[in-house]
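Lab notebook, bench 4. Still working through the backlog of constructs that have no structural model yet. Next entry is a single chain of 274 residues. Request: give me the structure tokens for it.
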Amino acid sequence: MEHIYEDIRRAKRIVIKVGTSTLTYSTGKMNLQIIDKLARVLSDLRNQGKEIVLVSSGAIGIAVGKLGLSEKPKETAKKQAVAAVGQCELMYLYDKLFSEYNNTVAQILLTAEDIDVPRRKRNMQNTIYQLLEMGIIPIVNENDTISTAEIEIGDNDNLSAMVAEMIDADLLILFSDIDGLYDSDPHTNPNAKKLDVVFDIEKIQSLAGGAGSKQGTGGMITKLQAAKRVTREGMHMFIANGNNISAIYDILDGKPVGTLFVSKNFSEKEVHAE
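Model written out:
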């Protein structure tokens, strides 16, 4: 495993995804402690010379708390309106907190067409590359006020994988509300065991449960879909607990954290032969 961890230690361009369950409390209000720590840690990595892209959920969840709603709206148009309120609030907070650590952020809102249409994809790639070259941290979310795909059926796990693939990232880290992938649902089974390393996603897909928390839209299924996509493209991916943002340091130090999904460039047979 050492040459895998060495490969991870060398990662320079890193995509980090945080979900609504990480950014908000169960009340729907923003978890300021977590968001501040996220800004501090990512700013520190940027100061080290890492190229950081943050894929952030949370617009609808944060707006639900800001507007005092009891639950997410069910109608698409109302979801889109609430997302517009939440995106403003979310970026205001990110801009404020990252600025306190002397780093600049930029907002990028994507739709599926921005990735699927070659001309628009090239334009998006060029924008992100330029921002990274300028030392700016792009913050990416799906454009919920334009596209209905994410707020109806989708998630930002797959979006983060698409972004990682689009910019040829070295590593993808998904922060969730659990420590990693388990052999059964740890929310209902106290004896569930965490898988530290996964080489063959096909073998473990049956372990994925349903949707995540009521604040978020994703679950383990979408995280495995993201893992399959990026590992196929030669990237490693981690699932780690969003309550410990500082785990990024351990990941980049080559320490076992959460669940590591190994790039297809490294075979299980070769690792066991070491």
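Notes after review: Strands lie at 13-18, 51-56, 105-110, 137-142, 171-176, 197-198, 236-241, 259-261. The longest strand covers residues 13-18. Flag for follow-up if needed.
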